[in-house]
Give the backbone structure.
Amino acid sequence: MTPGVGTVYRWELLKLRYQKRTYLGLGAAAIVPILFVVAIHFRHNRHGGDFAFSSYLTKSGLAVPLVILLFGAIWMFPLITALVAGDIFASEDHNGTLKTILTRSLERWQIFAGKGLAAVTYAIAAILINGTVAVVAGSVQSGFNPLQSLSGTIVSAPKALELVYVSLLVYLIPILTITAIGLLLSTVTRNSAAAVVGTLMVSLLFQLLGILPGLGSLQPYLLSTQFNAWQGLLRTPIDWAPIVRAAWVCAVYGIPSLAAAYIVFLRRDVAGG
Amino acid sequence: MSHGGGSPPVEVRGLVKRYGELAAVDGVDLTVNPGDVYGYLGPNGAGKTTSLRMMLGLIRPTAGTVRLFGRDPTVTVRALERVAGFVEAPTFYPYLTGRRNLDLLAAYDGDGAKGRVDRSLELVELADRAGDRVGGYSHGMRQRLGIAAALLRDPELLLLDEPTTGLDPGGMRDMRELVRRLAGEGITIMLSSHLLTEVEEVCNRVAIVRSGKIVYEGEIATLKGAGAMTYSVSTTDDERALAVCRAQPAISDVRVRDGRVCFTADHAAVAELSQALVEAGALIVALTPQTASLEDLFFSLTEGEAAGAPVPLGEGEPLEAAP
């Protein structure tokens, strides 16, 4: 069989299965909703429900994944994403294995594409695992009940479930941009820790820009704002404007990052290691 | 079997790699012919690894060209078809087993490489440790796994960077034995080394590199026999012979050692001397060349003043005095 992008992709997924950081990231994505639901359970019993989002969270378990998206945006999901995207090229530098795989029968672009797809697959898996665990744990705690939309209308449970998953997909748009930034820092820094922390710093920097006074007009075009685009789905009727904006704003940040990572990887000297 | 319409396995012309002011490789020309076991010899830091990286397409030359069977490895990885090797120590994924690492590389090779995994492991005597993680391998085992990984590509050309470095004496012997065996199977091999004895033992041709420049390229036999050499002469009248030697302008370093007249001269001067001795009535009983030690030559070629211009030598040309 002629090797190609698919070959790299399959082996990258296999390599991820053998690395601790994969389980750290996916484990965090799975455990956070469970801890969250346990916390709701105890707080609700003790305080009678007077905490943030309490009524929302205790009426329907389907609210749990959405509230986690709201809070996870600041650092949790960017960190989980960066754990693999920031490492996927840099670890090859660290192990000195880049020269090993670049002297076989695959062109550099094929290696880049396979690795990029693996990082994206991991990010998608992390978000879907998180959402699914949140739906199940939330439903166990608060029931698989209809959900109140942000416009105040009641949405049936099956429809709400659909909205949860579409929200997760919309949330993936900025996450893919974070993946692209992680891939860029991974190729440029050639250092896993620097790339992971750097990616997280970029994400936090956008959050910071968003709260600085006088920069309000920039707000709609910051990467951090796009993490809330999914909320448009929970309005009646659905507000597509923030979602459309998220698509192009994220493309503006993500595509040049990915292109730069690609060019750097294709042209770089593989010395050291 | 062969590629590129008879193009040599390796053809390097004017190869330069600069890092800022420093020229790590500074105008290297060399040719490796089919069937050669070619030694790329020089002290540490002479630019051997940088040259090999360019030959494998890992780094881009600042100037000059590399052709492997006529193809340019900086343009496409297809130039590495039937070419394998490693630079510095071979590296693997430490969290995967030896076999898994080879499976991965075989998948990246295609072309039936998967079917060669078992045979390659057996050839380097790692079959019984193939199920262990590479993270637990000794340096010697990784070195052998590196050879196994190269053999997956069913190579016609192997580029090996210091294959015996870091091995114990037994490991070095086994590695040289392996190199000889692979050469015996018809694989062209280019290996870098800073060990003269190693190159002398396994190679038929050699390039000697110093500060990024080739100071000699050619047959080892030629290198040993070339240039001004020391001779000793025994005649029917040694006193007269001594005077004749001293009178010859092309002969130097004339002295008496162990009762025999010794001197340094090139081939032409020795021929002239023999005639002069006969004409002077000192008949030659024995005229013996004292073969220069390759080690002396190596050190004289590689330990001149770094700033001095190395002597440019074509293949098989006489070896002139080192700078």
Remarks:
- The mean pLDDT of chain B is 86.
- Chain B touches chain A through 34 residues (CB under 8 Å).
- Residues 180 and 305 of chain B are 35 Å apart (CA to CA).
